Amino acid sequence: MGGVVVGVDVGTTGVKAVLTDRDGRVVAEAGEEYPTRYVEGNGAEQDPEDWWQASARCVAACLGSAGVAPVDVEGVGVSSQAPSIVVLDGAGTPVGPALLWLDRRGHGECAARLDAAADVVAATGNRLDAYFAAPKLSWLLATHPEVRRSGATVLMANGYVVHRLTGVPTCDTGHQGLTLLGDLDTGRWSQPLLDLWGVPRGWLPEAVHPCTVVGRVDAEAARATGLLPGTPVVAGAVDGAAAGLEAGLARHGDLCEMTGQSTVVNAAFQADRLRRDALGAMSVLPYPVPGHHLVYGSMVSTGGILRWFRDEFGDRERGLAGPLLGSPAEPLAGPDGDAFAALDTLAGTAPVGSGGLVLLPYFLGERSPIWDADARGALVGLSMASRRADVVRAILEGTAYGLAHNLDELGRLGLRPATLRSVGGGAKGQTWNQIKADVTGLPVEVSPHTRGAPVGAAMVAAAGVGLAGDLAATVSERARASAASVRRFEPDAGRHAAYQRYYAVYRELYPALRRSYELLTAARDNLCSRA
Q1: How far apart are CA 439 and CA 14, in angstroms?
Q2: How far is 130 from 147, CA to CA, in rounded Å?
Q3: What radius of gyration, in Å, describes the C-alpha atoms of the chain?
Q4: CB count in 10 Å sphere of residue 198
Q5: Which residue among 233, 287, 290, 462 is least enclosed by CB atoms within 10 Å?
Q6: Could you tell me where the DSSP H helices lie in 348-492?
Q7: Nearest C-alpha neighbor of 442 from the set 408, 392, 393
C-alpha cells in the first residue's frame, strides 16, 4: 500500500487510533475504553499501563483490519487528553497512577501562590488553576514525598505512549503550554516558574514542535503493536490542537468545537495579535501551525455526562435503561448497538426546553468560563411530568448552553464565527448538533468523515516524516476537499428565540447557586476529615 501513517489519541475515556493514507483518508480505525478512578472528592486517576495497552492493541487492530504491511507505515503521531501527567522513576516505570486534567487536588497549591498570579499569566498566558500540570505536580510532591525521592521524569499522556514506543522521554510545545512551567514566547522551561512550583528541572524533557521526529519504534513496542522496528515517531500534540487540524483550523479566526468527555472550543489565533491580558476566561497553548496559538474555552463534562447517564441508568450488556423518574425500562441501544446514538434519538422526542428543565453541566467542577472547582451539576425544573427523554435532552441542551457561554467569551476577543465546525465523538449526535445550532444561532458543520484528534495526530506525523508538505497548506487543502460532503445543521429562528429565554435562565443559575456550592464543599470536606 505504501505511504500510510498511524494516528493515536489517548483520550479521557479511551484510545482511538486511525490509519490514514498520504491524502489523509482514514483506511482503518479502532477504539478501546478504559476506567478512571475518582478519589478523595476531587481527584481523577488512570493507570498509564492502560493507555499503553489500549494504544498497542488499537494500532495492531488498524494494521490488521486494513491489511497493511508494517513496512508501509511511514510514521506515528500521538495526541492526548491534557494536561494529564505521570511521573517515572529512573528505569522508566511509573511511580504511581497518572493524574488527569480532571484532577483538582492542586487547588490549594494555587491558593498558596495567588501573589504570583500575574507573573504566571505574563509568562504562560494562562491563569493560576488546578487544571494545569504544575499545581498537580506540586500537590503530588507535597503529599507524597516518596515521589520526589524516586522520580526522574514527568511526562504527559501522549509523551508516555511515545516513551513506550521509543524509549525516549519527550514533550511537545503544546503540552508544555499547559504546564504553567514554560514561557509561551520562547518555548523554554522557565526557571522562576519551576522554583515557584518546586518542580525539578531535570524531570522535564526539552519541549519540541509536535512534528519533530523524536525517536523510532523499538523492538518491544514493535512486538506489541505490529509496527516495524525503526518506524519514526513524532512528538505529537494536545488533543484539542490535533482535532483543530482535522477540522481545518489553519489561519487566524478559524474555529471549531470538539466534544468527547468534555467540550473544547478551539480557535486559531495569530500569535502576534494575542493580548494575554485580554484572554479573560480563555486559555492558550502553542498550535502546530507555525505563527499561531490555539485559544480555547474548555468545559469539563459534556459527553462525560451522557456516559455517566449510560453507565448509571443503563444495562450495557443487555442494552436496557434502568428506571428513571418512575419510567419503565426502555431499549437504549440503537440498531448498531450504540447506546449514545439511542440516547441522541431519545432526546429528539422531547420538546425544546426539555419540558422546562435546565441543566448546569458542572459535574466535575468547571473550567471556562466560570473556573470554579466547587461547582457541581444541577437539574432545575423537575416535575412529576418530567420524562426520561426530557432529562436526556436537558443534558444536551445544558452542554450547548455552556458552549454558547464560551463562544460569548471568544467574542470578547473579536472572534465571531459565521459557522461552527464540530468534531469528535459528540459530532455523531444528530439531535445534539441541531440543538447546538439552535442554541448558538450558528450553522453547525460536520464532516461525515470526522474522527477528531487521531486524524490530527496522523497529520502531524505525515508532516514530520515528509509525507505531507507545509502543515497549514495540508490542513487547508483537506478542509477544501471535504467541504462538498459536509453536513450542515441550520439554526431555526423560532427555536433560537425560545432557547435564548432558557439560556438567560442558565446564566442566572450559577451565580444563584455559587454560595450553595461553597457550603456543599465545606460539608463534604468536613465529612471527609472525620472519616
Answers
A1: 29
A2: 19
A3: 22
A4: 13
A5: 290
A6: 388-411, 430-440, 453-464, 471-482
A7: 408
Spatial distance between the Cα atoms of 349 and 371, rounded to a whole number of angstroms: 33
Distance of CA 385 to the CA centre of its chain: 36
Count of CB atoms situated within 10 Å of the CB of 178: 26
Strand partners, 358: 380
* Most confident option among 341-350, 420-429, 516-525: 341-350
Angle between the N-to-C axes of helices 493-530 and 388-411, in degrees from 0 to 180, rounded to the nearest 10:
100
Quick check: bond before 448 cis, omega within 30? no
Burial status of residue 253 (CB atoms within 10 A of its CB: 0-12, 13-18, 19 or more): middle
CA 318/CA 330 separation, integer angstroms: 11
Non-local (6+) Cβ contacts of 52 within 8 A are 160, 161, 164, 224
Convert the pLDDT of each residue in 214-265 to its tens digit.
999 999 999 999 999 999 999 999 999 999 999 999 999 999 999 988 999 9
DSSP-based three-state secondary structure for 335 = coil
